[in-house]
Write a structure and sequence with these properties.
138 residues; alpha/beta; Rossmann fold; two-stranded antiparallel sheet; 7 strands; globular
């Protein structure tokens, strides 16, 4: 198993995920990623300061407003926004971060890795990888 495959499996072994950049627009990746988690039996918590709800779920403004721990954070934001999201995630002790294609910010990636976070970036997409995972056994 490659390092990337192992990191993807580790990230997706969780059950609760924050989706930063969630959108009500079903054609946008922030919405598609949220729906992918839900379709694969995971709990997804939308995060976007401009949306009150996404896919019938209450949307919070930022990671600090989640009110519960998450197993991983999927980030679907412009790179200049990603830097602040990663900073906040690290400050909150979140150590599993997946920067979806297009969200990458090199400085934020370096900082997160230096802090010991598992960071997926510059490659795999949750929309491709999640369907490949075997369903979790409860």
């Amino acid at each position: 198993m490659s390092n990337v495959a192992r990191d993807v499996a580790t990230f997706l072994s969780g059950q609760v995920f924050a989706v930063v950049g969630a959108s009500r627009d079903r054609s946008k990746f922030g919405n598609r990623v949220l729906r992918a988690y839900l379709a694969h039996g995971r709990r997804a918590l939308p995060v976007n300061p401009r949306e009150p709800e996404v896919e019938g779920l209450v949307c919070v403004a930022d990671l600090a407003a989640l009110g519960e721990p998450v197993d991983g954070v999927s980030i679907i934001t412009p790179p200049e926004v990603t830097a602040g999201v990663v900073e906040q995630a690290l400050a909150l002790g979140m150590r599993r971060l997946w920067l979806q294609p297009g969200a990458e910010h090199e400085g934020a990636i370096e900082k997160a890795r230096a802090a010991g976070a598992l960071v997926l970036a510059y490659g795999p997409c949750v929309l491709v990888e999640l369907p490949r995972m075997r369903p979790s056994v409860s």
